[in-house]
Write a structure and sequence with these properties.
Function: Required for the transposition of the insertion element.
Structural class: mainly alpha
Number of strands: 0
GO molecular function: DNA binding; transposase activity
Pfam family, one: Transposase_mut
Keywords: DNA recombination, DNA-binding, Transposable element, Transposition
Shape: globular
Protein name: Mutator family transposase
Order of helices and strands: HHHHH
Helix content: over 70%
């Protein structure tokens, strides 16, 4: 999922976006992950709205990381 998300990102933003996405998938609970995804969205949706949209669309599959 992360690799797929990063294909949309320019090289100049790559490190920052990666760092912010890590906060989502390294969260210890689903609620924390959703909060981090919201923070990610607030910061990056102007430039890369497809990333958070994709994560939300596939959340049913991703939430198994936190259970």
């Amino acid at each position: 999922m992360v690799r797929n998300s990063l294909k949309y990102v320019s090289w100049k933003d790559y490190k920052a976006v990666t760092t912010d996405l890590k906060q989502v998938y390294r969260s210890s609970t689903e609620d924390e992950a959703l909060l981090e995804l919201e923070r990610f969205s607030e910061k990056w949706d102007d430039q890369y709205p497809q990333i958070s949209k994709s994560w939300r669309t596939h959340w049913q599959n991703l939430n198994t990381l936190f259970n």
